[in-house]
Amino acid sequence: MNKTIKYVVALCFSLLSALPQADYSEHPEAAAFVASMVNKHGFDRQQILAWLSSAEHQKSIVKAMSRPAEKVKPWYQYRTHFISDLRIERGLQFWAENQQTLERAEAEFGVDPAIIVSIIGVETNYGRNTGSYKVIDALTTLAFDYYTYTEKRQSRKKFFTVQLEHLFLLAREQQQDPVSLKGSYAGAMGWGQFMPNSYRNYAVDFDGDGFADIWTNPTDAIGSVANYFTRHGWKTNQSVATRAHISGSIDESALNKMKRPTTTISELTTMGYQPVEKFDPEAKAFPMRFKAKYADEYWLGLHNFYVIGRYNPRTKYAMAVYQLSEIIRSRRCASANNC
User: Of these residues, 123, 151, 165, 267, which one is catalytic?
Assistant: First the structure.
């Protein structure tokens, strides 16, 4: 077989492999996945094949993953989706209904209750929108049929393959049916939208009934979100972010890098960022710019802002969570004189 024929055969195989399968148990990449679940975790081969055969490819999931709102919408439009009068009122109601649980979560985990309330509000509108996709459909679609030639997308495919692995492990540990679980188009589940590995690592049984129920139990959802934050390094009673004024020219390549801050406030000041609030000059932060409707906003994100970003590594997302939390806290203080 000459080189040209070999190339054509390889190309055809690649294209055929990229086509969505009607039965994921027969997908070209399924054999390796099934073998791993059997050899690494001791699953029954026929059980894994049965679960995979029940999964369905969802074109809408690939489309949604290709156009995340964080990239498409400017900040001032993105913000209005999550910070509205209705969501604020629902946040206040959620806080009032779960005040004792939030206080216990703060005492045990050291996490600001306003942040917990805001996360659940941004993620699912307080349990009203936990997702309508079958989690197994989302994860098989993204693990096996999310094909691109970029390194970043390939790494995301690997991520979703790991999530599918954790879904089956979760199902076995919690005696759940993985085919019936519902979630987002990315496979996130419950009030706090935990991916399967996050459920296994961070979900807690906060009401002591023997089951960590993040799907229907707000008590467990609150405890689980708090545990997630403290396990990712939340610092109790520390600031999250501050507005900044700009002087002179700034290095735009340094903006909106969602990573653990390493630059001190003192250094940022010499770079042209003047924080509105007063901070320890040795405190660390990173600079951000957000496109408002009429002018750009500049902010400095501190360590706890980065921790919010561990939930979703987008600066717009973390800023929406932070600002919603501040508004809900302020409204609660004003209405109940409870600060």
Answer: 123
Q: What does the DSSP assignment read for 192-215? A: TTB-HHHHHHH---TT-SSS--TT
> In CATH, what number is assigned to the domain containing residue 171?
1.10.8.350
Among the listed residues 144, 175, 174, 171, the one whose alpha carbon sits nearest the alpha carbon of residue 160: 144
> Which domain range does residue 9 map to?
3-67+133-202
Q: Does some domain include residue 111?
A: no
pLDDT in tens, 258-312: 999 999 999 999 999 999 999 999 999 999 999 988 889 999 999 999 999 999 9
pLDDT digits (tens, 9 = 90+) for 33-48: 999 999 999 999 999 9
- Helices 151-174 & 30-41 angle (0-180, nearest 10): 40
pLDDT tens digits along 63-75: 888 776 666 789 9
Is residue 139 situated within a structural domain? yes
pTM exceeds 0.85, yes or no: yes
Number of compact structural domains in the chain: 1
Known active-site residue 123 = yes
